[in-house]
Write a structure and sequence with these properties.
2 domains; PSMD9; alpha+beta; about 15% strand; Nas2_N; 6-stranded antiparallel beta sheet; elongated; coiled coil; PDZ_6; Pdz3 Domain; chaperone
Amino acid sequence: MGSADALKAQLKELSDRRAALELEVAQRSARLETAGVGMGGALVDGEGFPRADVDVAAIRADRHAIITLTNDHKALTRQMEVLLHQLHALSSLPGAAAPQPAAAVAARPPPPVASGQHMANGSGSPIAHQAGHSLHQPFAVVDEVTSGSPAAAAGLQLGDQMCSFAGVTQQTAGTLQAVAAALQGNEGRAVEALVLRHGAPLALQLTPQRWGGRGLLGCHLRPL
């Protein structure tokens, strides 16, 4: 197991590679949609001959590439999850110092439900832990923070575990979908969030807002 800084650097590299895959998939998918065939549209006419109104060879190449890229994306995500677990293990070692804010990780992602968190300022106040309280049960972990995003500037860290966001908790049905809805419904307004950082609860104030990158906050949550 490497050092925390080395693990963060590896996560950054893998995330950049994953973002590049996502961009290529998006570009190829756009071409298929423009051609009106998508991933499953017929490439032969009613008599079984290749269609003359589309570039059949190019469409087949794009479809094959999308399948390959999607598999590569899944493999990179699995690698990132392993590294993230290693990073958590390092932070839990006796006497381990709390790491500095995680190296910014390129965002992303069209995969599942993504949502980022923007902290209006860099301040977060530790709060007393109440054992067994449902509020302190995390439902997702921050597995990406986009470089230059509001989340990165505010100090949200890779590995923070989200316990509540704008009233959404582990007991909320469809938690990540509810977070996404809360983001849209609170654009430009500060909302309260609670995360676990190295096992300690931390109250944060986050403000969803437009910026130069994807989403309103610029990070990604992976369900636990």
